[in-house]
From TrEMBL:
Belongs to the LysR transcriptional regulatory family. InterPro entries: LysR_HTH_N, LysR_subst-bd, WH-like_DNA-bd_sf, WH_DNA-bd_sf. Residues 3-60 form the HTH lysR-type domain. The keyword Transcription applies. CDD domains: PBP2_LTTR_aromatics_like. This is LysR family transcriptional regulator. The lineage of its organism: Bacteria, Thermotogati, Deinococcota, Deinococci, Deinococcales. GO terms for molecular function: DNA binding; DNA-binding transcription factor activity.
Length: 297
């Protein structure tokens, strides 16, 4: 086994949280994957780092010593990289986005950014919210764009760009399609397509808070196949009668045969569109991003 930074970050997360579920969410891996990483780390070092019972996780003395060392190593590395890159414009800027971002103002703003960074190649990569957060943490991405109520990820910063209204996507033959606006309460008893908590924990939690506060109880259809990971795939699932889906308003112009979009009301749900970046992003680039996305032009 080659000891990597991700092993130390996973160890620190578990050592600080002392809870596998919270620690796994913090480093954006599944609980079994986190357990596997910790076991591999213990085997590699020949040490027992945690005492585990069915209800309790505690650091051993060796674990406490490694925690102090890991914090020092990670802090020194992160600070050093931040200082090194602070005033250097990169040759390549890796930008992540979810597929619906193409229907917002973001592509035009990125084109404007290119004008400010003529010697920097902007490489755009499509990925889910979770994939982008992982990419930002491991350095494969520099900037990402997605909807989220908040971002909790070590070494990642974010800001809200604007609020996106959520609309209902449904078959054109569905009874609710006859309404100009669909009350949120009308979703009770309806089959609703959802991404799983593992693929988008923030959106999953947001929708459950929204439904709980409004007293709405849809029939949840969670991750019914790989097609849930693309806009076109979701539209096909809706057209085939697999369920309804909540989409951001920016996608209302995308269109798909057999599928219509209706506003939601009572209440109208909104979720922030966010820009996230790794905290070692050069300061000059970050300032340009802020200027471009703060512009009202």
């Amino acid at each position: 086994m080659v000891l990597e930074l991700r092993h130390l970050r996973a160890f620190v997360a578990l050592a600080e949280e002392l809870n596998f579920t919270r620690a796994a969410a913090r480093v954006f891996v599944t609980q079994p994957a986190l357990s596997h990483q910790i076991r591999r780390l213990e085997e590699h070092l020949g040490l027992t780092l945690f005492r585990r019972t069915s209800r309790h996780v505690a650091l051993t003395d060796d674990g406490k010593r490694l925690l102090r060392l890991s914090r020092t190593v990670l802090t020194t590395l992160d600070d050093g990289l931040r200082d090194l890159r602070q005033h250097v414009a990169p040759q390549m800027l890796n930008v992540g986005f979810v597929d619906y971002v193409g229907h917002t103002a973001i592509p035009e703003r990125l084109q404007r950014l290119r004008g400010h960074l003529p010697d920097t190649h902007l490489r755009q990569m499509e990925g889910s919210t979770l994939e982008q957060l992982r990419g930002l943490q491991d350095g494969h991405l520099d900037v990402g764009f997605f909807v989220a109520t908040r971002v909790r990820a070590k070494a990642v910063r974010s800001r809200k760009l604007w609020d996106e209204e959520l609309m209902l996507a449904l078959p054109e033959t569905h009874p609710l399609a006859q309404l100009e606006a669909v009350p949120l309460g009308a979703l009770t008893g309806q089959h609703l397509l959802l991404n799983s908590a593992e693929s988008n924990p923030d959106m999953f939690a947001y929708l459950h808070r929204l439904f709980g506060e409004a007293g709405v109880r849809p029939v949840e259809v969670v991750n019914p196949g790989a097609r849930m990971y693309s806009f076109a795939g979701i539209m096909h699932l809706i057209d085939e009668g697999e369920g309804l889906f909540l989409i951001v308003k920016s996608l209302r112009s995308a269109g798909h045969p057999g599928v219509v979009f209706r506003p939601l009301c009572d209440p109208t749900p909104v979720i922030p569109m966010r820009m996230a970046w790794r905290d070692t992003l050069p300061g000059a680039v970050l300032k340009l991003l802020m200027r471009v996305f703060n512009s009202e032009d």
